[in-house]
Amino acid sequence: MTIEVAQTRILDAVHVIAETETVDLRSALGRVLAGDVRAAVAVPSAPNSAMDGYALRGADLPVSGKRRLEIVGMSRAGAPYSGVVGEGQCVRIFTGAVMPAGADTVVMQEHAEAEAGWVVVGSGEKPGQNVRQTGEDVAVGQVVLARGRRMVPADLGMLAGQGATRVPVYRKLKVALFTTGDELREPGEVLPEGGLYDSNRYALLGMLQRLGIEIREFGIVGDDRQRLEAVLAQASAEADAIVSTGGVSVGEFDLLREALEQAGRVGFWKIAIKPGRPLTFGSVGGAAFFGLPGNPVAAMVTFYQFVQPALRRMAGEWPLPVPVLFKAVCLSSLRKRPGRVEFQRGIVEPDGGGRMVVRKTGQQGSGILTSMSQANCFIVLPLDSGPVEPGSLVDVQPFFGLV
Ligand SMILES: Nc1nc2c(c(=O)[nH]1)N[C@H]1C(S)=C(S)[C@@H](COP(=O)(O)OP(=O)(O)OC[C@H]3O[C@@H](n4cnc5c(N)ncnc54)[C@H](O)[C@@H]3O)O[C@H]1N2
Ligand code: MOO
Fold this sequence. Notes:
Layout lengths: L2 H11 L6 E5 L12 E2 L9 E2 L3 E4 L9 E10 L13 E5 L11 E4 L3 E4 L2 E5 L8 E2 L10 E3 L7 H9 L4 E5 L3 E7 L3 E2 L10 E2 L1 H12 L3 E8 L3 H14 L2 E5 L10 H8 L1 E6 L2 E2 L3 E7 L2 E6 L3 H19 L11 E5 L10 E10 L5 E5 L9 H4 L3 E5 L11 E6 L5
Parallel strand pairs: 5-6, 13-16, 13-17, 14-15, 17-21, 19-23, 22-24
Antiparallel strand pairs: 1-12, 2-11, 3-10, 4-6, 4-7, 5-9, 8-9, 18-20, 20-21, 22-26, 23-24, 23-25, 25-26
Helix pairs in contact: 1-6, 3-6, 4-5
């Protein structure tokens, strides 16, 4: 199965949560809007000055030479001038102050010479300049923020700019999380010979936390079918989605598969992706189920490719952002065989000469979590491509952005 087919099937199968709630603006960051927010007030609410200077009639500006205008008053932000600016007059004005009646133009103070109640302006100024018009940012009735938007800091500002104190949002998505494998130990415990600490659950916790999800942790579930079935039943009763790692390939102890066949409807897919070929997707009770491969990098790559978009959709987010891809010059040689899309891990940066360059973060095995920890991007190698020689252009998908 191609990545695209798997992504489409998953997005088509999941449901957006129905319940909504209202939250205080202070708690709205990262939440998903459950309804359109329309503007009740125009921003700005009145024409105002973009500069400190003098408000005057555009018709009074000299075409050539200079003109002397009488200063008849002052308009400060929060304390407008109540009179009218007549011919040959002006008002001392400050940034953000309402334009006085009669005036339609502001000359910044650096371009004017003030002298005892009078000001001299020169030519080269344009009628209408330096004025911010009513509603030029937001007009009354316009959709300020649309349903399905995951709110960013500027959105909180937009809502506050409308005088809003509370906003309608979808309730938080609940996700149950567990890992499988008798070899796993909880951090803090003593590690037996051949054991390893459960790193997947913590990496997944981090990725889920970034999505603002309410997490129900079921810990490590050993290779015990009855226990797996019990956890699946409880998880499906408590959560909108279940995410697990391990036990999805073909090993004899991959009991998750049997437990799932008992508890729900799931498909076992082989996807043309590396790392992360084996993936399980389906439902257990009313919950969507995602069974990720156990290898730590495979678990993270498949989370980003398949689980994250699905959880965002379920949480009400729409449209989903299209992942950013750009070209960079690859400084490493990369091993690659045609047949799978590969998500190798890299560090991308400007080279100082106007180019973006990328190099791989060491060994690229799907168990090498260091390769992910040190990376700031995926190097995305297409399905049918072969090895990459240093100096070639490759597609890069950055992890970073403003936060
Ligand atoms: N004969 C085949 N063997 C394997 C295949 C295959 O197609 N045929 N696929 C390989 C690929 S690709 C992957 S990925 C893994 C996926 O296997 P599972 O999902 O069943 O994962 P496990 O066998 O349980 O574990 C794989 C690996 O990852 C380690 N692991 C598991 N859970 C965690 C955790 N929570 N934290 C840290 N590390 C974890 C585990 O110890 C194993 O080393 O199968 C290949 N085999
Ligand atoms: O998922 Mo596996 O190699 O593709 O780790």
